[in-house]
Write a structure and sequence with these properties.
Blueprint lengths: L12 H17 L5 H5 L8 H13 L3 E2 L8 E2 L1 H10 L8 H11 L6 H16 L2 E5 L7 E10 L2 E8 L4 E6 L7 H15 L4 H28 L3 E4 L7 E4 L10 H29 L6 E3 L11 E9 L5 E10 L4 H22 L3
């Protein structure tokens, strides 16, 4: 079996049609599709033996497989991915579905949280699947920040806002960070956070980095000019000042300067890490159709997630709505429903001025 999923361009017309019919049959019935069934539906008249040969080729490519010993085949996760990205025909939103969604959002009363609850209920009802609604990120002033290490490559940030709202966000910290470095970052940010939003806090940390950079440049300038030291990767994350003649520094106050430079380097490195923490905390993830193990949350249940972002009045992505269901979702129907719901929520959020 190849170590990559082939492109549709690598399949000839017959292979592409057989592949499409297998996937569509599976999505419709949930059952394996056999060669005899395909002989009755293909646009060209070919024998069952010919179709079996094509299916064997598709199986070798990792696009379809057999759930048990039978002549029938179902799409693999890679096959579903290829189908969704290249062959999926998205239909128009059904008039009845549109009316149900419009009716749900017709009630303009209540706060944004109530609106999103109604959206989730409507989406579940229309699609007969589990709904997922991600609320807009909060942009109120911060009262307290806490970082919690969950694993070597995973951490949780707990944001407590001045208005009492609490929000948890997962992120992947920069390599090499420890629980103690996360605590140190939180302590530094909490000393600056009061009355500031996350965006404003990022600006303050940026100014701190610029100030340390300027002081470091000033102290190191004389050492570099006299040839005692030289910069390696100056201005980058891995920058270092290499001292080649420490003996020339003795008795001239140079050792004190060198110690101060070392302290500035350590401080600059910490603040760069903190700035990266903030950037990771603020950053939103891209959204699309996740199939099976493409989303670790659903990898054990054989589920898919169809999700679409919604935006505020400034065209900034502030949340998302989606549907969770089996991998044999009716993607052609679900995609326009999720897309339309996201547009409705975005308009409502923009009308209310939420951000």
């Amino acid at each position: 079996m190849p170590d990559r999923t082939p492109n549709l361009d690598e399949l000839n017309d017959r292979s592409r049609e057989v592949f499409r019919r297998v996937v569509e049959g599976y999505l419709q019935t949930g059952a394996p599709v056999g060669s005899r069934t395909l002989t009755r539906t293909l646009s060209e008249q070919v024998s069952a033996a010919t179709i079996r040969n094509v299916m064997q080729d598709l199986e070798f490519l990792g696009l379809i497989g057999s759930p048990h010993v039978s002549a029938g085949r179902i799409p693999t996760q890679a096959g579903l991915r290829l189908f969704v990205d290249g062959l999926l025909e998205v239909g128009d939103l059904d008039t009845e579905d549109r009316a149900k969604l419009d009716e749900t959002l017709g009630d303009r009363g209540g706060d944004v949280a109530s609106l999103l609850d109604r959206v989730g209920s409507a989406l579940s009802g229309v699609t007969r699947g589990a709904s997922l609604v991600l609320a807009p990120k909060h942009e109120a002033p911060i009262r307290h920040i806490e970082f919690v290490s969950l694993a070597a490559d995973r951490a949780l940030v707990v944001l407590v806002f001045a208005d009492g709202h609490v929000e948890n966000r997962l992120f992947s910290p920069p390599p090499g960070q420890t629980p103690s470095s996360l605590r140190e970052a939180a302590n530094f940010l909490n000393a600056l956070a009061e009355g500031r939003t996350l965006s404003e806090l990022s600006t303050v940390v940026g100014r701190e980095i610029a100030a340390r950079r300027q002081e470091l440049d000033t102290l190191a300038a004389d050492l570099v000019e006299t040839g005692v030291a030289e910069w390696i990767n100056r201005g980058e994350q891995t920058e270092r000042l290499i001292v080649r003649g420490r003996g020339n520094l003795l008795g001239e106050g140079g050792e004190a300067d060198l110690e101060r430079i070392r302290e500035l380097f350590d401080d600059l490195e910490r603040k760069r890490d903190i700035a990266e923490f903030l950037e990771l905390t603020e950053r939103g993830e891209g959204v699309r159709i996740f199939i099976g193990s493409e989303n670790k949350l659903f990898s054990l249940s054989g589920s898919s997630l169809v999700v679409s972002p919604y935006m505020n009045a400034d065209r900034k992505i502030v949340g998302a709505v989606g549907v969770i269901g089996p991998t044999r979702l009716n993607y052609g129907r679900i995609v326009p429903i999720v897309d339309y719901t996201a547009q409705l929520v975005g308009r409502m959020i923009a009308d209310r001025g939420a951000s």
